[in-house]
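Translate structure to sequence.
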């Protein structure tokens, strides 16, 4: 475990892709923890990164360790590439205009199902793990996410709780899936 997103727990430097992944995870975890405290009055503190086999991030919640598996919800793989590489802003706007023409509810249902199905089949070396899904797509609103979840049946999974951070900035109320 380490609080440094650029190095492993043994001090080795991570490659650029792994550093970027860790920074995205840390950002999502911080937004989730801040929003959770604002919404429920329960603080979460001291985040650190874990090595593989453990969930991505750990923190302290109610005096005990809580592990957070972080996932990002994208409308498409193309959107993920654009949002992870902010240097191509012209391409992003063209892409988002094309994306707006596609039925967002059908996309959301498919993307959410695939993400949860993928995470549900993994094993985590943890006593308590929550899944935190950060919606990074500007295509989906909090209302659309809530409407989709009403029709959603979650299969068995290893998570104590599943939460969605419905907006990229972490300003909207969290949505509890289970």
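Result:
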């Amino acid at each position: 475990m380490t609080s440094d997103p650029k190095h492993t727990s043994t001090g080795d430097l991570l490659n650029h892709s792994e550093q970027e992944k860790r920074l995205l995870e840390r950002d999502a975890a911080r937004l989730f923890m801040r929003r959770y405290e604002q919404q429920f009055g329960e603080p979460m503190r001291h985040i650190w990164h874990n090595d593989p086999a453990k969930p991505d991030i750990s923190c302290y919640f109610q005096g005990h360790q809580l592990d957070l598996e972080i996932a990002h919800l994208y409308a498409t793989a193309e959107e993920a590439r654009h949002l992870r590489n902010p240097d191509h802003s012209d391409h992003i706007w063209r892409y988002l205009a094309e994306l707006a023409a596609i039925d967002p509810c059908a996309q959301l249902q498919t993307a959410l199902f695939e993400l949860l199905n993928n995470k549900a089949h993994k094993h985590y070396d943890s006593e308590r793990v929550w899944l935190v899904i950060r919606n990074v797509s500007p295509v989906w609103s909090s209302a659309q996410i809530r409407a989709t979840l009403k029709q959603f049946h979650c299969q068995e999974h290893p998570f104590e709780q599943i939460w969605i951070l419905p907006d990229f900035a972490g300003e909207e109320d969290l949505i509890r899936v289970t």
